[in-house]
């Protein structure tokens, strides 16, 4: 199976592991000349929490998710890395249930691979709080590379 499109799914916790995620994507994208979609999905509640920090005035009903994603960390750092490496990329945002939106985004861009990061959680935490990463792994329409940052383990 050829890899033409890689979806790098990021969220607010990925700022600390942006370099590792970028390196993981570049290991595949650069030699295969694959394009990268930087995808940032967020909930209504998350948007309302960070819209002031981004200098956005729009309420969630009037927001362009792609525009929000462009301005949300760690997207800017990832853009710099992909531009420096000469890798084609685009930015996509989505508003809704994060795991569902990432899976839908993968389908929409016809992703051949998803790369996502995560942190260690106990089985009890996953049972009580759920796991976005696990939901994406189970629903994904393509193979998933899971980047676990050992320096950020809690």
TrEMBL record:
Domain UspA stretches: 4-146
TM spans (from-to): none
Pfam families linked to this entry: Usp (PF00582)
Family named by the database record: Belongs to the universal stress protein A family.
Name this protein carries in UniProt: Universal stress protein
Origin species: Natronobacterium gregoryi (strain ATCC 43098 / DSM 3393 / CCM 3738 / CIP 104747 / IAM 13177 / JCM 8860 / NBRC 102187 / NCIMB 2189 / SP2)
């Amino acid at each position: 199976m050829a890899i033409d499109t890689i979806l790098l799914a990021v969220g607010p916790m990925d700022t600390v592991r942006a370099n590792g995620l970028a390196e993981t994507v570049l290991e595949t994208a650069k030699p295969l000349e694959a394009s990268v979609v930087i995808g940032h999905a967020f909930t209504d509640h998350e948007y309302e929490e960070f819209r002031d920090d981004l200098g956005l005035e729009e309420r969630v009903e009037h927001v362009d998710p792609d525009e929000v994603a462009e301005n949300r960390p760690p997207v800017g750092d990832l853009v710099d890395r992909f531009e420096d490496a000469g890798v084609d990329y685009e930015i996509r945002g989505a508003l809704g249930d994060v795991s569902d939106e990432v899976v839908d985004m993968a389908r929409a861009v016809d992703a051949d691979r998803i790369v996502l990061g995560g942190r260690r959680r106990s089985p009890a935490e996953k049972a009580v709080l759920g796991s976005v990463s696990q939901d994406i792994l189970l629903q994904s329409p393509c193979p998933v590379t899971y980047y676990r940052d050992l320096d950020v383990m809690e």
